[in-house]
């Protein structure tokens, strides 16, 4: 998984809802991959996001 961890209950909620919306028909592995992409984008400063919500 990414080096970034969701820090607040709000970030965890947003991450959970986003994974559900993007990958609800996928396997657990597929859903984990979507979460990894989201967290990786937050971690990479050149992507412009500093939190899961952004």
TrEMBL record:
This is Uncharacterized protein. One of its GO terms (molecular function) is hydrolase activity. InterPro entries: SleB_dom1. It comes from Didymodactylos carnosus.
């Amino acid at each position: 998984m990414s080096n970034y961890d969701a820090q607040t209950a709000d970030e965890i909620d947003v991450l959970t809802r986003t994974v559900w919306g993007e990958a609800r028909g996928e396997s657990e592995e597929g859903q984990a991959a979507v979460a990894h992409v989201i967290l990786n984008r937050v971690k990479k400063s050149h992507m412009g996001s500093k939190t899961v919500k952004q």
